[in-house]
């Protein structure tokens, strides 16, 4: 009787091993679920970025305001009616040239 119980226990453990640790087992399924959740977060972020870029492309196609704003920010251009003012920083620590 004891031999039969031991044999059944070993058989039961052999059957359980693939269920828990084998290919497609519970541990692998839990790891895959975590990876899927992480990938969904990444995809959501990329989807939001793509939508923002698509909106910007649409603005650039339909209106001139977006193009003007882009030219001002990226290229440093200005409109005809604007006045350019440049403020230089005050270098208190810089040495002044000697006067003759």
**Alpha carbon gap, first and last residue:** 116 Å
Low-pLDDT residue spans: none
Number of strands: 0
Count helical runs. 3
Helix proportion: 55-70%
Integer average pLDDT: 84
Number of domains: 1
Subunit organisation of the chains:
single chain
Profile the largest sheet: none
Compute the CA-based radius of gyration.
34 Å
**Gross morphology:** elongated
Bin the strand percentage.
under 5%
Structural features, described:
The structure is a single chain. With 100 residues, this protein is mostly helical. The chain has one domain (2-75). It is 68% helix and 0% strand. It contains three helices and no strands. The protein is elongated and about 110 Å long. The chain starts with a helix and ends in a 25-residue tail after the last helix.
